[in-house]
Amino acid sequence: MAGWSRAKVVIAAACVIVCYFLASVLVPTFLPKSESGSLPGERIFRRNDQVTGSEQRHLEIWSLTNAGIYLWGHILQGTFTTSAGGRLVVGEKVIGDWSIRFANGKDLSPSYIKADTEYLVLALNGRSEAVRATLFHWLDELRTLPQLKHIGLFLVGSEDCNNNWLLAHFIDLPEVDRLVSAVWMTYDHALVDGKRFFQWPLGVAAYRNFPTSPVSEASLQHPRPYRCNFLGTVYKGSTRAGLPKILEAINAQGMTCFVKIRTEWVAHEKAESMELYQRAVKSSDLTLCPVGKNAESYRIYEALSLGSVPVIEDVSPKEACEPAVERRLLLANNLAVPSGDRPKSDHVSGPHRLLKSLGAPVIYIKRWEELTDIIEMEKQLNLQQLVERRVKLLKWYSQFREVLAEAFLVSLNKMAKQH
User: Fold this and answer.
1) Per residue in 31-44, is it b (16+ CB within 10 Å) or e — as a string?
2) Of the ranges 75-89, 199-213, 258-272, which one carries the lowest mean pLDDT score?
3) 192 φ, ψ (degrees, to nearest 5)
4) Element (H, E) at 174
5) Using an 8 Å Cβ cutoff, are 280 and 256 in contact?
6) Is 406 helix (H, G, I), strand (E, B) or coil?
7) Cα dist from 128 to 131, 135, 165, 318, whole Å
8) Which residues pair with 65 in a beta bridge?
9) pLDDT (average), residues 36-49
10) pLDDT tens for residues 344-382?
11) CA-CA-CA-CA torsion for 368, 374, 375, 381, nearest 10 degrees?
């Protein structure tokens, strides 16, 4: 129950935590810093003074993966319109001194990029060798653009934490290495150095049209019918395997949790199942987030955005995902570990280093047998306490998105100053 005790302290001090990480934690650990070592004081939707002069810079964000949709729609709060008969999603937005154009779709090709493009952010999937070939093709083509100054990469990394190919590719192609100024990676990895390689949250499943706006505070005021929920796949041999019996016992004691389990993963959710999932999360005070192939999941951020406290299984499903192991693997393959000070999060043990470093108001557990005691403690909370916790949770996630947006703008301004 140590995890639950820590969570209560975190929840009670949520406002202090938010202020703290806004001022000092997020930037020096995972996200780009300004030259002063802190985020700009103004909000992202006002003019940012770090780029001087009246010249407006143009940025292209091209996305072939969920990471780009999450960046554009959920973090930068850009709007979408469809193009090319619905095959492309496009948008435009002015942020500070940057005029940004966004495009997402499987039909995107490097040949579509204008020859005078100077700044480009490319969001791609790097999970398998097959999809990495697409990344290599794009990087090779982009080298031919005569005026291209900087590339930023948003990569959905390997769930097995096998991202060493990325560093090897940069070593083999120094001309690509010169162009790529920043790499934002999902999932914990030793490559994250807070200077060039940055941790980025997996975020919500934007490809399933998950709402870009969190629920309203008004919707948090009423009693919820379920203590917890779990809708997902139970894999044989995984830590999820024992979860159904635990939930069955909890429900037998009258501590209602919404449960819908399947034995095989489904790549493309139907509208009905997605609606059921969102309704279950909105109707629950806790959302169970067991590990899958990786410790991080969309479910964590979806629960945060809907005001349901994530109960996160705080274990690494694979030894290779432990930071110390990753660094040994880099050295064993004659690949240099990125230089520079390691993020403070390195002193945080286990997975979910990003969330832990930012004081996310979640509950961590090591074994699902702890869940029964957690539910018992939930029963002691009255409606006012539950509502206050939901509001704090929602405010934390909104602040979290704002800080990511500001940090992204800082990284753009740093790129502009490098030339």
Assistant:
1) bbbbeeeebbeeeb
2) 258-272
3) -65, 120
4) helix 174-179
5) no
6) helix
7) 6, 11, 10, 17
8) none
9) 33
10) 444 454 578 889 888 899 999 999 999 999 999 999 999
11) -160
Angle between helices 383-417 and 298-305 in degrees, nearest 10: 120
Contacts of 25 (CB under 8 A, 6+ apart): 344, 357, 358, 359
DSSP-assigned letters across all residues of 326-350: HHHHHHHTT-PPPPSPPPGGGGS-S
What token pair was written down for 184? 């934002």
Both tokens assigned to 413: 């301004």
| Inter-residue contact 306 to 336 (CB < 8 Å) | no
Tell me which residue of 410, 357, 325, 349 sits closest to 98, measured CA to CA: 410
Determine the straight-line distance between the first and last CA of the chain, rounded to whole angstroms: 53
Between 47 and 61, residue with greater pLDDT: 61
- Region of poorest pLDDT, from 4-8, 31-35, 179-183: 31-35
Task: Give phi and psi for 222, each to the nearest 5.
Answer: -105, 155
Q: Which residue has the tokens 């990029």?
A: 113
Rounded Cα–Cα distance for residues 132 and 152 (Å): 16
User: What are 274's two structure tokens?
Assistant: 């997605």
SS3 1: coil
Looking at residue 139, its amino acid is L
* DSSP one-letter string for 210-255: --SSPPPGGGGSS--SEEEEEEEE--TTSGGGGHHHHHHHHHHTT-
Structure-token pair, residue 121: 């952010």
Distance separating alpha carbons of residues 383 and 142, to the nearest angstrom = 56
DSSP string, 245-302: HHHHHHHHTT--EEEEEESS--SS--HHHHHHHHHHHHTEEEEEE--SSSS--HHHHH
**pLDDT tens-digit series, residues 286-328:** 999 998 888 899 999 999 999 999 999 998 876 656 655 545 4
The identity of residue 417, as a single letter, is K
Between CA 335 and CA 329 the distance in angstroms is 8
How far is residue 387 from each of residues 18, 211, 311, 362, measured CA to CA in Å? 18, 21, 17, 15
pLDDT of amino acid 207: 78
Q: What whole-number distance in Å separates Cα of residue 206 and Cα of residue 3? A: 30
